[in-house]
Amino acid sequence: MSGKEKKALIINSLQDVFSRCKIGVLTDYRGLSAAEMTNLRRRFREAGVEYRVVKNTLARFAAQRAGKEELAGFFEGPVAIAFGYGDVTEPARVLAAYIEDSKVSMSIKGGFLPERMLTAEEINTLSKLPSREILLAMVVGGVQSPISALVGYLSAPLIGVIGALQSRIQQMEGG
Fold this sequence. Notes:
By secondary structure, the protein is of the alpha+beta class. 61% of the residues lie in helices and 15% in strands. The chain folds into two domains: 3-129, CATH 3.30.70.1730; 130-175.
């Protein structure tokens, strides 16, 4: 396989990933040792996130083909991208936790969702959000709480009436 064919395959593969992923987080991995990079890749893999070091020129072509021309400015210097296919907060959370735990000097360049670009600050904000499952549980809990209170309020008079009737029955049996 020639060099041109390999490059075409890489561009097609990246274009596909850019189109399919729910979120992409771009990082500057300068300063990471091979062992640190392996550890970071393992954490991403455990979270179901794909982490790829990309060649800037090929990534620019792939981004343009995928309709993400705004990404071109991010592809300068050493760039790796964390591609998330599930919960959009997952790549940002894993990356932020890794940077905090390992104290590496790695930086977040920015990111993208299918419909818009994200700044490094927005990626940091995403890393602090709870997962989708936790957010759904919070919503269900918030909806369920007023219903439980309403049931309690509606059943309180009924419980009082039942208690009064039982007391009267006991008086009549004893008397």
